[in-house]
């Protein structure tokens, strides 16, 4: 049966796009393209993936070239989607599913942006609360951090739906976190807001982005490594700026 080039190109584009947009490494996106192409006896494969763009050229017969350029505009963390793309690509390369079935699965993965959203709220609160305990907080700080973590997760989700720049969402998240911590400790006259703020910021820090930046740099993907490192530093700085602005205001007003 003759290979449908258009369907193959769509599958390659969607696979790599989902991986990059959901926190996957750039080399993983490139290798996924290569593995799928090799399983269909594609003679020439040249993929280039960065955190902000995807480019690849394939030639099935070694004569005619087909090129795809895809701009990556949003980036988040959803390891479940990456795992599902890996499963689909493995099933496709092993012949367990057809191109049509793989395309349908990838479109479903890409379009499902509400995967376990209600659980992410709970996880955001719990992680903030236990980080607060880890840094020395007590039961009061644990409770406030749980509440503030849920609120900040909701705020971050709303900004993501609006496709806002992560710089602004991080500033607002840091500011809200500090505001809630200082307000509760001041009004109730107990607890230490420092534990709440530090514990609440920890889940928001771009640890995965920095890890991927180091891995990409070590592998020789310098452009991707520099881009991810810059993004991680920008997010961390904006979180600190948002939290610092509220703390400074509280000091100026004599609240803390």
From TrEMBL:
> What Pfam families does the database record attribute to this sequence?
ThrE
What coarse category fits the chief subcellular location reported for this protein? membrane
Q: Which residues cross the membrane?
A: 129-155, 167-187, 193-211, 232-253
Topology within the bilayer: Multi-pass membrane protein
What is a single molecular function from GO for this protein?
A: transmembrane transporter activity
Instruction: Provide one Gene Ontology cellular component.
Output: plasma membrane
Name any Gene Ontology BP term. Answer: succinate transport
**Residue ranges constituting the Threonine/serine exporter-like N-terminal domain according to the UniProt record:** 15-247
Per UniProt, the keywords (alphabetical) are: Cell membrane, Membrane, Transmembrane, Transmembrane helix
Q: What is this protein called?
A: Threonine/serine exporter family protein
Species name: Sedimentibacter hydroxybenzoicus DSM 7310
- Which lineage do the record's taxonomy fields give for this organism? Bacteria, Bacillati, Bacillota, Tissierellia, Sedimentibacter
């Amino acid at each position: 049966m003759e290979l449908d080039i258009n369907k193959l190109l769509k599958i390659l584009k969607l696979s790599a796009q989902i991986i990059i947009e959901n926190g996957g490494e750039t080399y993983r996106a490139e290798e996924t393209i290569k593995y799928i192409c090799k399983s269909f006896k594609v003679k020439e494969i040249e993929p280039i993936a960065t955190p902000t763009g995807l480019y690849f050229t394939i030639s099935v017969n070694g004569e005619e070239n087909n090129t795809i350029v895809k701009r990556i505009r949003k980036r988040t963390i959803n390891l479940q989607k990456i795992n599902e793309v890996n499963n689909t690509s493995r099933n496709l390369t092993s012949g367990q599913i057809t191109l049509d079935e793989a395309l349908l699965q990838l479109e479903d993965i890409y379009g499902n942006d509400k995967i376990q959203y209600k659980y992410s709220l709970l996880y955001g609160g719990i992680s903030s609360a236990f980080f607060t305990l880890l840094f020395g907080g007590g039961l009061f700080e644990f409770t406030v951090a749980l509440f503030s973590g849920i609120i900040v997760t909701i705020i971050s989700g709303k900004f993501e739906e609006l496709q806002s720049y992560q710089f602004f969402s991080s500033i607002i998240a840091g500011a809200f976190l500090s505001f809630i911590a200082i307000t509760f400790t001041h009004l109730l006259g107990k607890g230490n807001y420092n534990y709440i703020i530090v514990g609440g910021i920890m889940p928001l820090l771009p640890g995965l982005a920095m890890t991927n930046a180091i891995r990409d740099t070590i592998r020789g993907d310098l452009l991707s490594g520099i881009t991810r490192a810059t993004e991680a530093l920008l997010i961390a700085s904006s979180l600190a700026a948002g939290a610092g602005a509220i703390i400074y205001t509280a000091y100026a007003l004599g609240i803390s």
